[in-house]
Amino acid sequence: MYQQRTIVVGAGIIGLSTAYHLLQQGMQQVTVLEQATVDHNLASSHGISRLLRFEYGNDSFYSEMVRLSQKRWKQLEQRTQQHLYTPTGILSFGNDQEENFTRQSYYTIRKLGHSPERLTSRSCAQRFPQFNTQGFDFLSYNLDAGMLHASTCLHTLRACIRDMGGTILEHHQVTAIEHADSQRPICLKIANGERVEAEQVVVAAGPWIHRLLGEELELPVRLTRQYLLYFANLPIEDFGLYAFPAFMADDLYGFPMHKQSPDGPALLKAASHSFGAPAEPGEVPPIDDLVVKQAVRRLYTLLPALRNARLDRIESYIYDVSQDENFILDYLPDDPRIVIGTGFTGHAFKFGILLGEMLSSLVRREESVVPLTRFQLSRFAHQWQEPTHSVA
């Protein structure tokens, strides 16, 4: 048995960012335990790209968090000389009468100092003829949006953690966390039989959080199955970077064509943000053809050229969704030595570098750069149950 001062469970974007900030703030003996490998195929953070956008309806709180996060991504780029972010702009489609999200986003981010453009159907057709605007009467284009290169972000953070003296142990699956005696170190059981002790623990295990804390705390978080769709055989001059923007239309969103691997073809990536069927972490169920066909049909309407493209690949992944769709960043009830981060709902990656800083502030008992009240477990006090505290 060996001791570490702080252990982070999970090497996704949240766990790696937390370890990075802890080390950057001077903490030592920081270890990340990952059940598989960094950027493994079943991880929520896995993949080549994630959207960074400021549009959150009238919720300026999240829009301001995006600004803080984008600043930190740029600082990490400068520090490491790695290309982590590519500007794409974002084209948003809304209905002025039926839904307010697009219009609210437009006016909210203008108040925050951004300069989104209001487009007419005609001006949109001139600039972005790839889109069918029929059915939408509020169109906006915001240059202040882009694409985070997700896998590169993960591997860059891993390198930084190691350079700063942190440890990342892959293939170390935590199966239980024992912490009943507050006078003794927290003990983490590893699937290979090891037992690791720590003074503080951050649990950022993505969809696996219920398997670690489910018997002890019934977290108000559900898991849903989602799909990413990749289209090939599109003209790069029409759908590539700087010709085609990222987009949002109702629950649909997508990216310009970009390569999924250094030697692979450039593909257009799109998906629906609507919450899917219940899911279990680690499982690889058959693709739900009906769900995919419904999304593809709607994408054909929005982007008619996709009818002549090939659906090259379908990836499935999992959202961990809190009841109010806000993040959960808090101490484990009755044991402030354990910090939990969950409920990331498929929109956390853009905030990842900032969320890690916020979780590190909980570990260090310092004031967070973003107020944490909105993310506390106590907001669910009348909805969730806390089982009797016991040794796991």
Automatic annotation (TrEMBL):
The keyword Cytoplasm does not apply. Residues 6-361 form the FAD dependent oxidoreductase domain. GO terms for molecular function: flavin adenine dinucleotide binding; sarcosine oxidase activity. SUPFAM superfamilies: FAD/NAD(P)-binding domain. Its cofactor is FAD. Keywords: FAD, Flavoprotein, Oxidoreductase. This is N-methyltryptophan oxidase. It comes from Dictyobacter vulcani.
